[in-house]
Amino acid sequence: MSEKLTILLLHFAIALTLSVIITPFTRFVGARLGAFDEQGERKVHLGAIPRVGGIAICLSFLVSVFILHFLFGLPQAYLTLDRKTGLFLAGGLIVFGIGLFDDFHPIGHRVKFCFQVFGSSIAYLGGVHITYLFGVDIGGAHAVASYAVTIFWFVLFINALNLIDGLDGLAGGIAFFTSTVMAIISYWRGDFSSAFLFGALAGTCLGFLRYNFNPASIFMGDGGSYFLGYIIAGISILSSSKSQVGATILIPLLALGVPIFDTILAPIRRFLIGKRMFRPDTGHVHHRLVSMGFSTKKAVWIIYAASLVLCVFSLFLVNLHNQTVGIFLASLASVVFLFLKKLGYLQHLDADRIYGWIKDVSDEAGLSRERRSFLNLQLAICDSKDLEELWKNTCRALMMLDFDMSKIKVANQANRGDRNPDQPAGHTDLGIPGISLPKRELDNVGEADHDVEWTWTYNGFDPNRYVCQECMFKLELPLLDDQNNNLGTLWLVKDLKRNSFSHYTLRRVEHLRRSVTRTLKTLGQ
Fold it and tell me: Is the pTM of this model over 0.70?
């Protein structure tokens, strides 16, 4: 056995031993301090369990690294503890610290995010940054792009491990698989410094799993998941910077495929269903598996299996060219996407739902032609000089919405203006080419001392005959101003058998009501 392999295994063994020894002590301290993870809506465990395992993870990893470096006097070529590594570890302590603080005193996601960015920025200042991505050099003159990509990388990994930490042993197991495969890959490529760090992290995770696997007696908490995600992200950057293969940076993305995919899609899913994008919920992959009837242990093993497959695939990517790696990863991402869609996790990302959402947004923003046409009618209503012009424009809008009948009752006759003397009483020409009055009637059916009432019907619609039949949609809209003064009432009738609602009918009816009310208020001033 070579000296380098011996040192790698020694890193793993020391970290494993420290983790096995430190974790029970940490559990005892957490229980005495009252840092428990209580049962709740998103929790699947029973009882109160200490959630300070992050302390054991952080101590085991750091102590094992320093023991081998200082006590055994490892050559600098094997493990370099220079300014870059020092600032990288300092950033990790900052991220770990804010997570641990949250384990004791819950804080808002914005504060945690700011500290994640701050800790990642410390590592960036130390020289841990991504300078080459997808064949593009983003270093040097592109420092802003390099900083943005590096911070995104750190934050993505930090939150990926945090979000997947929902079942006993899940986050720790995935971190163990990822660290192990990255240690092997780094060793194969001669990057022994990264291999030793990944080996120590793998031993730390395995030792912690002794107490964290179902049924868990301790949880890693936010402190532990934040630290693991940060360390994996940072060592991956250090490893890729020493490799001639640009696709090396993508290997940990593949190994952590399940939590990474979940982390990217979680805010999108919450956004599409109207929830806060960064508010925790029960829609993650492991929650889905449990809701499908799998036990907690079986759900963990299913995700373990998926992670193992991804880790094995990542080993085959080591000797592939960048272009081949890109094609392979794109194909694998498509397969994973289809699998998660079949699982039901992506139900809110269905093509029909996305298309409907886009149509809603474009219509509300006035991007669709129909919305712009209706907006033009709204403007015509608002520009009406008297009640008859207002009613004429209102009927044009109702024709566009395909209603069968409408009636309006205006509470103040004094504001309705003079009738056109050349126009017969009881009828108003709508001024629409090709439409004859018998098919579009606008009748003045009665006038009280202070009320004006008109009825409009479509294509010979007989209110006395059809209004009370089934499948008739009837809506009464009070025309109230900002002070809740009743300016009148608008009644609408639509035969749903003849033509159902369009996607935007009710929304446009409300726009119509507001336009009519605003104009009535203006005419009354």
Answer: no
